[in-house]
Write a structure and sequence with these properties.
The protein is mainly alpha-helical and 511 residues long. 49% of the residues lie in helices and 5% in strands. The strands form 2 sheets. A 5-stranded parallel beta sheet has the order 3-2-1-4-5, with helices on both faces. α2 packs antiparallel against α8 and α7 packs across α12. Bound molecules: flavin-adenine dinucleotide, ligand DLZ and iron/sulfur cluster (SF4).
Length: 511
């Protein structure tokens, strides 16, 4: 290989940050950036059509943006007849085209692609430098050091470290306002009379329209609709989306973070995760902008702390868990759950109004907010004993923000307890009562949320008790479940049988 060739810098589809680490210290005149639209990436699961369109359009816009900043960009389109379909195949072809002296790439966001990149040096007989992804606050070693020797890896303690490290919402060595966490103020159910901010939407330009046509033609069998496509696809648009959230939604984000309302998919959530995850927005900058809103008296502490915690706490923490647990994490199934994912996860067609709302909006917008993911589609799957691997694939497919490093720990660990409690201290099991408290869904549902058994009873109710009874050998000694297990024990034998029969009849109807 020539010593004097350019540096070949592959930029993966979730590395669309102008300051991505593989560019650090590189002179644009010495490098070729390689962006690749690939069958393997668009097809390793059946991604929602809008997710593919978002990523490809953002990639095309980013390529143009980098060209205007003086970089040479080699862009391989999905319908290029010579496209080999994989990162390795396209890097091989790019080596032929450019004769690079070396390859430099920022580490991938998933084990599958990481393993592929680690083979490049031997495969291509050319030096390959893999740079750490500096868009995260906590690198792999720092997370290891934090986790080492701890019996339990609780997010709350990790989050405090990140607060200290960034100085966000700190008053010297103490947390602003005297408390680290204001979650107790953040559990208001939504009121249908609330004024809801309209989400900012971006009209597709020529580039996006071409991508939408391509996706409609090539992926007709993938889930989801392109009809509501309104994502930001450039750095500037993502900044406008950020401003919209900070000005219009942040102040009420905390109060209504856990609320759900019929026909209101977005409430006061930021809708910024797709942009953070592909690199159109920087997480720390976003948190600093949110902090300013508190300092300027434009948003209360419970909202700003809650928002910042999601990003420097949860987001960093789940990434740490993903890399720490290794590629086998995806295979865990602590509760031996083996039921197939019901078809209605792909159609939204079910009489359970909470599920039809959460799934319907997911298929329309490739979006559901956290409590819908956790307490509606997640809790139902947990109670029904759905195979966590099938559920993991579903979440990876249907959300525009889904990449394995963030989706897998949330699904397998937090939502399904399939890692046996590494991430969550107890399973997020709940009856219909929780959904009724936090939403207006039950008042629109054909099922009766107050009824426990029988054909018209809310299925979550019998499933909840059945879940506890079914998993008593694995969960019976969990201290946080002591109360529900005591309540179960106190029930009359007849009631127990009726609940379990009701659950069984419902589960059989799913099969
Ligand atoms: P907001 O409610 O406005 O929150 C602000 C930001 O905080 C988000 O944009 C996100 O970057 C971050 N955040 C919040 N909660 C989490 C969390 N638990 N883990 C990581 N980051 C978080 N998030 C993803 O980005 N990708 C996924 O694939 C994903 N899969 C999930 C699967 C399940 C089963 C569950 C329960 C949660 C999942 N989440 C995932 C976390 C969370 O639901 C989404 O980040 C959030 O709903 C995105 O919408 P938003 O931008 O409006 O978030
Ligand atoms: C998710 C995705 C999709 C749908 N398509 C592409 C693509 O065509 N080209 C690309 O470079 N990246 C894509 N991605 C994102 C990658 O899957 C992601 O970069 C890897 O999973 C590594 O995190
Ligand atoms: Fe969901 Fe049950 Fe409420 Fe219907 S009654 S919306 S199934 S929780």
């Amino acid at each position: 290989m020539p010593d004097k060739g350019p540096i070949l810098i592959p930029i993966l589809g979730d590395q669309l940050s102008r300051g991505i680490s593989s560019l650090d210290g590189v002179d644009p005149d010495d490098a070729v950036l390689l962006l690749m639209e690939l069958d393997e990436e668009t097809g390793y699961v059946r991604h929602h059509k809008a997710k593919i369109a978002f990523i490809l359009s953002a990639m095309r816009h980013h390529a143009e943006d980098m060209r205007t900043r003086g970089w040479t960009v080699d862009y391989v389109k999905l319908d290029d007849p010579d496209n080999s379909g994989s990162f390795s195949g396209e890097v091989a072809r790019a080596i032929e085209r450019h004769g690079p002296s070396r390859i430099r790439v920022t580490e991938a966001g998933e084990w599958r692609v990481r393993a592929m990149i680690e083979k490049w040096e031997d495969k291509f007989e050319i030096p390959v430098e893999i740079c750490p992804d500096t868009r995260f606050l906590c690198d792999h070693k720092e997370f290891e050091d934090w986790a080492a020797g701890r019996k339990q890896l609780r997010m709350e303690y990790f989050y405090r470290e990140m607060r200290r490290k960034t100085g966000l919402l700190m008053d010297g060595d103490d947390p602003e306002g005297g408390k680290w966490n204001y979650d107790q103020d953040n559990r208001k159910p939504a009121d249908p009379d609330l004024f809801m901010p309209k989400p900012i939407s971006f009209r597709p330009d020529d580039t996006t329209r071409a991508v939408l046509d391509l996706v409609a033609e090539r992926f007709p069998d993938h889930p989801g609709s392109l009809d509501h496509f309104q994502f930001a696809v450039t750095h500037e648009e993502a900044l406008r989306a950020r401003r919209h959230f900070l000005d219009e939604c942040l102040a009420r984000f905390g109060d209504y973070q856990d609320a759900m309302l019929t026909g209101e998919p977005f409430l006061y959530h930021s809708l910024l995760s797709p942009y953070l995850n592909v690199g159109l927005l920087d997480p720390l900058d976003l948190c600093r902008e949110a902090e300013k809103k508190y300092v300027q008296g434009e948003a209360p502490l419970n909202a700003v702390e809650g928002f910042i915690r999601q990003i420097i706490g949860w987001r960093e923490y789940v990434r740490g868990i993903y890399w720490r647990e290794g590629p086998d994490y995806a295979a865990r199934n602590f509760l031996d759950a083996e039921r197939d994912l019901p078809d209605f996860y792909y159609s939204g067609e079910t009489d359970m109004h909470c599920l039809s709302q959460a799934i319907g909006q997911t298929l329309d917008h490739a979006y559901a907010h956290h409590i819908q993911r956790l307490m509606i589609t997640g809790t139902f799957a947990l109670l029904a004993g759905i195979d966590p691997r099938q559920l993991h694939i579903w979440y990876l497919e249907v959300y525009a923000d889904a990449y394995e490093w963030v989706e897998l720990p949330n699904t397998l660990g937090m939502s399904q307890f399939a890692d046996g409690g590494l991430l969550a201290s107890k399973p997020y099991a709940a009856s219909g009562n929780y959904i009724n408290k936090m939403s207006d869904y039950c008042s629109h549902c054909r099922y009766d949320v107050k009824a426990k058994t029988g054909a018209d009873a809310c299925p979550f109710n019998a499933l909840y008790w059945d879940f506890l009874a079914r998993n008593e050998d694995k969960l019976g000694d969990n201290r946080r479940l002591a109360m529900p297990y005591r309540t179960w024990e106190k029930k009359e034998k007849g009631e127990k049988i009726a609940l379990r029969n009701s659950a069984r009849a419902f589960l059989e109807s799913l099969d």
